[in-house]
Amino acid sequence: xxxxxxxxxxxxxxxxxxxxxxxxxxxxxxxxxxxxxxxxxxxxxxxxxxxxxxxxxxxxxxxxxxxxxxxxxxxxxxxxxxxxxxxxxxxxxxxxxxxxxxxxxxxxxxxxxxxxxxxxxxxxxxxxxxxxxxxxxxxxxxxxxxxxxxxxxxxxxxxxxxxxxxxxxxxxxxxxxxxxxxxxxxxxxxxxxxxxxxxxxxxxxxxxxxxxxxxxxxxxxxxxxxxxxxxxxxxxxxxxxxxxxxxxxxxxxxxxxxxxxxxxxxxxxxxxxxxxxxxxxxxxxxxxxxxxxxxxxxxxxxxxxxxxxxxxxxxxxxxxx
Length: 321
Hints:
By secondary structure, the protein is α+β, with helices and mostly antiparallel strands. It contains 13 helices and twelve strands.
């Protein structure tokens, strides 16, 4: 079963707890943290996007740099994100009319207000998964595959992406579902997810895995956006590969191959960075000496607009049993 991994303190009163699973694996393969059910299956949600991007590179996608980072992104819909998606599509001779992801407003509040002020509503290109979908379409175009039904799990693209996940996770997919954006969703264990991220972070130069890791590390603002914890996390840890996901999922690997995979069981995002930083501390990362990581170590609890408490890692997660 999931364990208590975070506590919500309002002043000196323990108001709530978050259950979850947190796995942190050292570079030598031993567990630094294993609480909850790390051997159970989970849907990685958007934490799987870097692996999907790897599968697309293996299938002939020709992206690098910030556009490859955007293919790995749950972007905030800021103007530079949207322009990048248009570049991916144009490079493949396609347009936003070819996208099949779910229309949505930008995650970023400033971008969302600007869109509303201009009289626009939800669209596919401003939805946070549009970079991935644009890259999927570009991969189809590079192979001469059908671009109309690219979200079908039986489509050659999705078959390749499933095979890629099974390869780097080192285990078979156990469940298949539909993600929030409409793309197929494949379940692996937390250990498999950590293994997949370690494969990216430790890959040899010139490999598709290395291309994904370098793009994300060099352009973290394209992976998330302004003020996003995943962006700040990668900026604070040069060479790290990190990706957040819906329903409280988070995965990260460091250049030495140590890796974290976690999920907050209730699907909440507020405890997700807190649990991640606690796991990194257990891996030996200097949190207190890094301002950005220190800022993510606790999440504020507000009262009348003022900070009156914190979301903290549980004793079990912070210190072990």
